[in-house]
Amino acid sequence: MTTSLTRAQWHSWLPWLLVLCVISLLQLAGTYPHGRLNLPAADLHWVWTGLTCHLLHITFQHYLYNALGLVVIAALFVGVYTWQSCLLTYCLSALTISVGLIWFPAGLHNYAGLSGVLHGWFMMGCLLLLPQQPRLASVLFVLMLIKLVVENVNGGLLSMPGFTVATRAHLYGVTGGSLSWLCVSLWRARRRH
Length: 193
Fold this sequence. Notes:
two-stranded antiparallel ribbon, Rhomboid-like fold, mainly alpha, about 0% strand, single chain, 8 helices
């Protein structure tokens, strides 16, 4: 028996594959030092850097953790996201994280990595999944909440030599994901009326 993806299934995987390709190419190009978000941001370039620094990773291990997280999120929420909601969640999460880290740097001097945006995508995915599969969405949400509490009490769950996991970025990412869901919900409600 052969299994092949339908056109709709391929379409729902494309945003995730595109992000995976972009972060992979940037990792291979070694662009980290030039694109990180420097804290506190002292110039007007922080908006662009605040959107793009999430695509860069400090080490190959850092990249692998986030690439694996991206694949897990894509598998969990395949078919739940549209291109538009995926892009909106990326932008709102990235900006929420960047603004949060600029206003409350918590000892950080620079920032890069996709993990905060992954938390935003995870939150948005849980909220989008809630009407269709309330039990699964609730379990995923509780697991994320436990993870956030544990890492904010004990520090990042995965340690990597040479840098600190920015656990606040995960909280800000969840906030960005929630804002994305609110925007999508308001837009859908407005279209219905």
